[in-house]
Amino acid sequence: MLGRLEMTIDECIDAYLTLSDQIFKKKAHRVTIRGKIQGRFDSKRLEEAIKEVMRNRKLPENTLLKSAGNGVCRV
After folding, report:
1. What share of the chain is helix, strand, coil (3-state, %, to 5)?
2. Cβ neighbours of 15 (radius 10 Å)
3. Is CB count within 10 Å lower at the N or C end of the chain?
4. Where along the chain do its domains lie?
5. 37 pairs with which residues across the strands?
6. Distance from chain centroid for Cα 74
7. Do 31 and 37 form a contact (C-beta atoms < 8 A)?
8. Which tens digits make up the pLDDT trace of 23-60?
9. pLDDT at 8 over 60
10. Are 1 and 53 in contact (CB under 8 A)?
11. Does residue 10 have a pLDDT over 80?
């Protein structure tokens, strides 16, 4: 967020707090019937939350987060 989206530290903190509230919700069951452990977050919610951050930054939802050239911030 700092480098690619050129967000300030305060903006990153606010975005992370919003993301974490949406993504890391406690699931009812942590272990499946077959004994497999479920993930601690919902990948669909993560995708939607990241797309929301992109929209808030006035960028297309599918913008690549890997910078192709020399960015302003070296991260």
Report:
1. 40, 5, 60
2. 19
3. C
4. 9-56
5. 31
6. 20
7. yes
8. 876 655 555 566 666 666 777 888 898 899 899 888 88
9. yes
10. yes
11. yes
- pLDDT of 30 reads 57
Cβ-based neighbours of 23, under 8 Å, separated by 6 or more? 41, 42, 45, 46, 49
Q: Which residues pair with 25 in a beta bridge?
A: none
- The structure tokens 């479920």 sit at 38
C-alpha to C-alpha distance for 21 and 14, rounded to whole angstroms: 11
Residue with tokens 């452990």: 37
- Please state whether the predicted TM-score (pTM) of the whole model is above 0.70: no
- Are the C-beta atoms of residues 19 and 42 closer than 8 Å to each other? no
Residue 49 CB coordination number (10 Å) = 20
CA distance 39 to 25: 11
| Closest C-alpha to 24, from 48, 47, 46 | 46
Checking 28-35 for CB contacts under 8 A at 24+ apart, the result is none
